[in-house]
Design goal:
This protein has about 350 residues and is α/β, with parallel strands linked by helices. The protein folds into two domains: about 230 residues, Periplasmic binding protein-like II (D-Maltodextrin-Binding Protein, domain 2, 3-Layer(aba) Sandwich); about 100 residues, 3-Layer(aba) Sandwich (D-Maltodextrin-Binding Protein, domain 2), CATH 3.40.190. It has a six-stranded mixed β-sheet with strand order 2-1-3-10-4-11, sandwiched between helices. A three-stranded antiparallel β-sheet has the order 8-5-9. Helix 11 packs across helix 12. The longest helix is centred in the last third of the chain and has 20 residues. The termini are close together.
């Protein structure tokens, strides 16, 4: 029932935010005379929120909010494990994380986190320095492709299998030589690697500093859409500690309204947003960020659409390696779905 109350509060606050811009959403506590006889709903909640985000794409949508919001506390980290540790310890209330890391955390903690929204769809690309034309995943037969560890490798394996290529036999997928995206980016730029799967903004950095011509041969998001028939390659999300959500519905609802506005600002004003990204420490180079933003697929996807995309994506990852999502698919209470009875589950 508490989540049903929060659903109503969030809907009202999102409406208010359309008029209030990026100011903290505030609506009155008074109930109409004919309102049901229930306890008063406290929507106004100025409890400070401890927010963690990752540097790079997953944090891009947070930039404008971080630059303007003086009420909450923001921390930028380079490693997702630091963010998950902060959620477990209570040092973070809300955090931006890779989607598979969020699922792992849900399973690890017995459901102590809730996903509020997807903030990044697919941002992986096949970078090609061979000079050869590669038009499909099937063209990678007999070749060695490098990818960062974890999410990019799981996604690539899933797509290559669907293209009829057995990893390790028909194509080599090396995720050990350059496990960190930045290390693989540098290897590509230096000409040590000819074929690599990289996320933005690493693709833009590699192309800008490469010793030989590089081209983007494949957009893995488009390959995913062809295969799945849906836009369900979702790589980044926003989660909240369940205990914090239950105690501070109003504060979370206000934050979400302003976060959504921050994402919209980024997509509508990439040049200005890029400056804020650099100023807030989310990413160091504003010029690179500006070039990369249109290819990062930053979004705000919530409710039933968010859940449908997440379930499809996590199911795909689990088919490659169940440990990639923590051993099993999260239960329904992992998803905060507004406007339906699922919010009470």
């Amino acid at each position: 029932m508490k989540l049903r109350i929060f659903t109503l509060a969030l809907a009202l606050i999102l409406l208010a935010s359309a008029f209030a811009g990026c100011q903290k959403a505030v609506i009155p506590e008074e109930k109409p005379d004919d309102a049901p006889a229930t306890d008063p709903i406290k929507v106004i909640d100025d409890t400070p929120i401890k927010v963690y985000t990752l540097n790079g794409t997953t944090g891009f949508g947070m930039a404008k909010l971080m630059s303007e919001d003086k009420a909450n506390e923001y921390t930028v980290k380079a490693d997702a494990s630091d963010v998950t540790a902060a959620l477990i310890s209570g040092d973070a209330d809300i955090a931006a994380l890779p989607t598979n890391a969020a699922a792992n955390l849900y399973n690890k903690t017995g459901g102590k986190v809730v996903i509020l929204a997807v903030n990044t769809k697919g941002c992986l690309y096949l970078v090609n320095g061979t000079g050869e034309k590669i038009e499909s995943l099937a063209d990678l037969a007999g070749k060695t492709v490098y990818a960062p560890a974890q999410n990019p490798t799981f996604i690539a394996t899933y797509l290559l299998r669907a293209a009829g290529l057995e990893v390790g036999k028909d194509v080599i997928l090396d995720s050990e030589s350059y496990a960190a995206p930045a290390n693989l980016r540098d290897a590509v730029a230096a000409g040590k690697v000819d074929l690599a799967i990289l996320p933005e903004p690493m693709v833009t950095i590699a192309k800008s500093s490469a010793e030989k011509p590089l081209e983007v041969s494949l957009d893995l998001t488009e390959e995913w859409k062809k295969l799945e028939g849906s836009d369900s390659l979702v790589q980044g999300c926003l989660v909240v500690r369940r205990a914090f959500l239950e105690e501070h519905f109003g504060a979370v609802a206000s934050f979400l309204a302003n976060y959504k506005a921050s994402v919209e600002f980024l997509n509508e004003n990439p040049a200005n947003a890029a400056v804020l990204i650099a100023e807030t420490g989310i990413f160091a180079n504003a010029k690179i960020a500006e070039k990369a933003i249109p290819k990062c697929n930053i979004c705000y996807l919530d409710g039933a659409d968010m859940k449908a995309a997440m379930v499809a994506y996590l199911t795909a990852l689990a088919s490659v390696n169940q440990n990639s999502i923590g051993g099993k698919l999260p239960e329904d209470d992992f998803y905060y779905v507004t406007g339906t009875d699922e919010a009470d589950k």
